[in-house]
Amino acid sequence: MADASTNGAAATAGAATAAAPPSNKPPHSAKPKRPNYNLIHADPLPVVLYHSPPLIPHNPISLLHHLYLYLFPPVQSHNVVYIGVFSPVTMSVEVRDPTAVLDLWNKGFWGKGSLSRSEPTWLNREMRRLGDTQVGETSEEITRRRRDQRKEMKKERARKEKEELLKVKEAEAKGKEEDGSASNGKPIIADSKVVVGLEAEISGLDEPATESTQPSLPAEEPGLPTPPPSSDELNTSDSESKTATVNIGSETLPVSVPPTTESPPAQPAKVVRFDSNTSTKEIPVERKTVTVQNQEHLQLMLSEAFFLVYALGILAVTTADATKPLPLPEIFKMFLRYSTFPPLPESSVSLTNLNPDNSFLINYVVYHHFRSLGWVVKSGVKFSVDYLLYKRGPVFSHAEFAILIIPSYSRWEGREENVGKEWYWLHSITRVNSQVKKTVVLVYVDVPTADEVKGWDCERDGLKKVLGKYKIREVALRRWIPGRNRE
Amino acid sequence: METDGLTTGFDDADVDLSDETQDFRFLANITKKGGGSIPKRGEKDFEPDGTNLQSSTLDDSRNAMFQALSVERSHTGKTRATATWHPNRRLAQIHEQRGVLFKAMGRADKTGTMWLLPEELMYMVERGSLECFYEQDREPQDQAELENKQPGEGINLNVPMSVQAVYAAALEATGGLERYQVYSNLKRSGYIVFRDPAAQFDDLFRNVGYEYKAAPPAGSRWNLWGLGIFGTLFNGAFWGTGKGDPFQSMLAPGAYRSYAEMYKRLAIPKKEITWTPTTKAGEGGTKSNPFTVTYHVWKPRPNFKKSAPGPPDFLVCVISTLDTRLPSLVDVDGLFKDIPEVDRATARQKGLYQGLKEGRRNVILATVDYGVISYMKFSDSRFGDEMLEVDPPAKGKGKPGNKGGKGGPAPKK
């Protein structure tokens, strides 16, 4: 396992640097070059394309060749099948093989790193923390730096406000000494001045944000990879992030300067400093490589895993105590059981008497629906919704749509709809999402009755037919304000 | 940045300035100069900072409000408009039309008599533009007698009605307090508002000069997917009902030339079901279903004509939080069903995202919670019709024809 993970480390680092070829000419830009995401994430699925020779219609050999290819297609698409281990504790599927992790992330943004916000970057962060100069900045670091900057900006703004207030108070005190009544007109001018100054500052503060919300120029815009948004670090990474912040003050800034100069023979003892008071000038710029064992794995949601297993056939799932991959019916049954917490008892889930009102099944139908339309679907739990939809992927643009699944039982006899979904519930969700500029989409899923899906498990493509019996209808929500729609 | 929730500045389309407390100093400017623009808001003061500047600003604002409220409202005899409430017909008859408000209100019958709907009457009386009287005479027995009567003839103007009296007399006919609250809110915001013609109780108002209902669908089947007969044929041809592996992978290993080709196989077959949502309770009587279009709303425009308003800009459905919750699929379907929809190309003109957000048709749900109105637009999005571009764009030098597939039709901007 140890050597495998170091390979993975090299591979990850390799991908990051290979994508942005480190030219020999030192780029003297302040921001580090962003990797070429268009290249890294060119493939939307972890399935290999077949590049056929061009068809020349008037060439009989070409025609024959194509006919042959049509009848006996070369099996090229699934040359690897990745292995995932189902974890009942986290109710997710874990992928540990580094090449699989890399492939699954790069080709379709599947899963998330168990110790990262989204992309599995723990190893890179750790290497950078230990002083490795070969690894590019991770999105977590960029986000943290941006937040720190913002915090500073706010502090500065508060300080200025205070200063301004003091000035006003002093002026008023002076005015009182000179004559009893303070003039009314003058202070208002001062007031507006403060406001104008502050407005300028606020707009300055928002500038990076507006810049990054332009998804149209993802390649040209350096230094701001837009990761899937998160306001909180994972709990599991808490201790890690704490230790990191101790050093970050002294190390982040100098390290982010690209390692351009050919360094003299290394003085490795100087690189790792755990003393945050060290002056930044002393940080050397020479190259250094660190070897760390990867502690992170990729976590797949059940819907993601099932899509990879069933729809694409590119993943095999085992359990901790199984020796070989589980057959699909067993995986399906397991996922149906683990759709709720605590898991449903084994006896209550039956494939023959499939209950279509199973939350895994409903979630999977929606996941499959949007995935098969070309969206990259990620969990929306951070925004109180079920899924987020990304166009192409989280590194290219922010999620535009937040998916809220509304099961509908119009075909069920005597079943009440939308129990508990009061208006305040909907308003709180749309409010949260409009703050982050996402559009909430209600996805109504009309659930078939148990009778409608009976006998599916003996039919060819039975599951596909079951999925087809769920009806999906999307309703986008948008707050409407009378004062803003007149023109 | 979205995660920090910091970007929500004043320019955000979702920020409703009317949510905030007004700085009433702008009123002083307007009353002094007889015009002027509303000033931009400054920073919010959250707590007293102990300066005279702040307290004097606050005082100014407060005084401006009192001043605005203390202005005595009067109207000259020339602009005095009066009406009479007819309880039997539940309409108010205008005696003489004066003022600009009638450009977007009321309706004249064949004899030229102008009639006001109860909500129009309440709105006018409430804002002081109209004086209303209660008719003490016996009501005309039938329509013919009423129309034969000359305007102003036989009407006693001796029982003036207070605002309260107008509310008491007309509120029920408006369809409930929530509806009137939304009506007056939209009117005060400057919009032109008419009831949905189907919901009019008086024939006079039912006839409008524009298309507002979609043509009834050709089939009575519930078409969620829009595949029609071809879809059925397609599915039938590929499926057969043989025995076999129910878990057959959707993407068999093989040679794929483009990702679009793969995605086509990943699509869930969209088979229609013969089922009509009308079978369930709640759809039966129009009265019991609160999810119907209540108002047709037009943006304010100078050349608005009551007789030929053109199709409305917005459709508003008024509901109360007291007796409704999130609409079910059947409710939503019923709400959208009768509204004409734009075709896919028109929706796509504004771009992929905007097209999906606006949808093919939309209804604004005005949710009234004890007088607090929240407007939310529900749009019929149809994500299923928009396949995204999945293959990387062909290289400039390469063969563009080899790209294959029919990803998103529009190139990315």
UniProtKB/TrEMBL annotation, chain A:
Cited SUPFAM superfamilies: tRNA-intron endonuclease catalytic domain-like
Region Disordered: start-end pairs: 1-36, 133-161, 205-271
Class in the EC hierarchy, top level: lyase
Stretches with biased composition (Basic and acidic residues): 149-161
Keywords: Endonuclease, Hydrolase, Lyase, Nuclease, tRNA processing
A GO CC annotation given for this chain: cytoplasm
Feature: compositional bias, Low complexity: 1-22, 250-260
Active-site feature positions: 390, 398, 438
Domain tRNA intron endonuclease catalytic: 360-446
GO biological process: tRNA-type intron splice site recognition and cleavage
Domain of life from the UniProt record: Eukaryota
Pfam family, one: tRNA_int_endo
Protein name, as recorded: tRNA-splicing endonuclease subunit Sen2
Lineage summary: Eukaryota, Fungi, Dikarya, Ascomycota, Pezizomycotina
UniProtKB/TrEMBL annotation, chain B:
Spans annotated as Disordered: 34-54, 387-413
Keyword entries, A-Z: Endonuclease, Hydrolase, Nuclease, tRNA processing
Coiled coil location: none
tRNA-splicing endonuclease subunit Sen54 N-terminal domain span: 66-134
GO biological process terms, semicolon-separated: tRNA-type intron splice site recognition and cleavage
GO molecular-function terms, A-Z: endonuclease activity
GO cellular component, one term: tRNA-intron endonuclease complex
UniProt feature, compositional bias: Gly residues: 399-413
Membrane-spanning ranges: none
Entry-linked InterPro entries: tRNA_splic_suSen54, tRNA_splic_suSen54_N
Listed PANTHER family: TRNA-SPLICING ENDONUCLEASE SUBUNIT SEN54 (PTHR21027:SF1)
Family the UniProt entry places it in: Belongs to the SEN54 family.
Name of the protein described by the UniProt record: tRNA-splicing endonuclease subunit sen54
Species of origin: Orbilia javanica
